[in-house]
Amino acid sequence: MKNTSLIRVLVFAGALTILSSCKNATNMTDNNPLLESFNTPHQSAPFDKISEVHYMPAFKSALETGRNEIKAIIENPEPPDYTNTIEALEHAGRLLTRVSTIFFNLNSAETNEEIQAIAREVSPLLSDYSNDIWLNHQLFDRVKTVFETNQTNNRLTKEQLKLLDNTYKGFTRRGALLDGDKKARYREISSELAQLSLQFGENVLAETNDFTLHISDEKDLSGLPEAVVEAAAQLAGEKNKEGWLFTLHFPSYNPFMKYADNRALREKMFRAYTTRGNQPNGRNNNEIIQKTVALRLEKAQLLGYPNHADYVLAERMAKTPDRVNEFLNELLVSSLPFAQKEMEEVKAYAQKLGFNEPLQRWDFAYYSEKLKSSRFDLSDEMTKPYFQLSKVKQGIFDLTNRLWGITYKPNPEIPVYNKEVEAFEVFDEDGSFLAVLYLDFFPRPGKQGGAWMTSYREQHLENGHDVRPHISVVTNFTRPTPTRPSLLTYNEVTTFLHEFGHALHGMLSRVTYESMAGTSVYRDFVELPSQIMENWARQEEWLHQVAVHYQTGNPIPSQLVDKIIASANFQSGYATVRQLSFGLNDMAWHTISHPVNEEVCTFEEKAMAPTELFPKVEGSCMSTAFSHIFDGGYAAGYYGYKWAEVLDADAFDLFKKNGIFDRETARSFRSNILEKGGTDDPMTLYVNFRGHEPSIEPLLERNGLVVSRNKD
Ligand SMILES: [Zn+2]
């Protein structure tokens, strides 16, 4: 699972994507391109006309319009019904959605200090707006009336029922049904939790930034690749130090642990990394964790759930903590023997190299890397000449053409926010227009790292007319040079496929309401369309089509393809068990029924014990820097990484059975999953496609974690 790839989900209004056609342009907003109708191909964003000065007035005007629309719903003299309340709420604030979408997308892909300052200024205004909706009891009273009436008088379509349910839950899951003291307590807890999460993150960041390993003796660099040494020298230079500096940030820490021959320094780095947030200093996260889990528990119980995991999972495909724990344990039983075997292999290889002490955590990556290179003789430099960006792009276009008949036509008339961005019109097999697609490949100073998919406009119906989406894929691939085209690593090829899968989810959407379009699905379901696409990068047939040497034009040698595929499973048992240990730890913290008073490390040790493969390291603690769950959206959700892999492997298994380019399987995947967005329960959508609930077998098989089995 890539940590770098993510979907940008706009969180500004806390949820309802909001639209409306009325526009109260005031004088200060005259000639503001963000507030006028877009006179561009497919009403795409007029990037060429927008400048920083337009944002704040546009936000203010759009916020006012949105508030007026909400007020109109509340003050409607008619009794509340589906159309005048639920649908009206879905449609309220459309102008704000438009402005926010453009603004926040650019803040990620093409930002500058001015835009960042606007982001800081506007964020509290947006959260006030969101609170004005979700905490508004008059508005909730109307929603509740419609919800209750509908229990007895059901005349709504399935999608309407889903929107009604989403809207009602949007309020109740934020405490709308609580009265008096309880409601006040709920708000108190929410704001305290926000503070704790902020503090947790700041502590981890400070602890990460605070440590540096300063090397002044060149022989301590032994084993490290040249590029890593160069980066370390550069960092030292920036800090006016002689020699080399290494840090706990991934690009520095990770290669150091893999390659540095100096064992004592690896241990030093490891100990610094794994004691973050667990040292006797002002940045200790122990108490923050205890408070956080206690407050999450209290909040869940206020809302009527036994614990925080139950609260979270009620809105997930997995549904219950029991199901998640069962899932994690099922995978553990299958993968643990492999992980143990892999450990033994590493130990044996280390011994062969003359290392005879007990293998510690700071030795594992080091000897694994040596074992891996002895086994595979494969490096990025060997495969890169075969993965030319333009060919990979064409290969992905062709793949979707072969599966669904989709075609892409560049349109230079569509405005872009940077001249490097490519804009396409995307057409369906019958020639009808599907979407606008932006591709933005290369790093720039104003662009965030990593890769993501986002949208400028979600698909939806407007007065029965199908409004098609505007989707963007943003990456940070290596730039071409005057002598070399952009060449991708294999990992970047799969990243491209991954984000393109999210893009397809957005582009092929066919729903009624914007708030349920494309990738607006449960978090443990959203990675299915993206991860399934990565499977084609493991198929020889597809690789042979896209991988052609950029100088000689020769196709990639089969030998190299075999190595890529085989090396992908190197230590997959160990990697699986490690992911499971994080998932189990997360679930343990969020299924407590009483506050935790014991030491964080002690609690965690018990939770992760079934996965432990190493001798204990005193003072090391995972939870105290586990930002995913204490300063991110993954509380009771870390299992989702593995869950999505199980889904994508199981789903792709059908392609393997029917043919990886099989049109009928592709059609079914499209109509049952890609077009449906969040209009139905994901398990229902999945079973409609696959014919049964997901099974872990195909993933185990893909990862080489089955003992031996006859393949059909
Ligand atoms: Zn993703």
The mean pLDDT is: 93
Radius of gyration: 26 Å
Number of helices: 27
In the sheet with the most strands, the strands line up as 1-7-10-6-5-4
Query: Approximately what portion of the residues adopt beta-strand conformation?
Result: 5-15%
Give the biggest beta sheet. Answer: 6 strands, mixed
Globally, the shape reads globular
Bound molecules: zinc ion
Low-confidence stretches: 1-28
Q: N- to C-terminal separation?
A: 28 Å
By secondary-structure content and strand pairing, the structural class works out as: alpha+beta
Work out the helicity level.
Answer: 40-55%
Tally of DSSP β-strands: 10
Features:
7% strand, 712 residues, globular, two-stranded antiparallel sheet, disordered N terminus, binds zinc ion
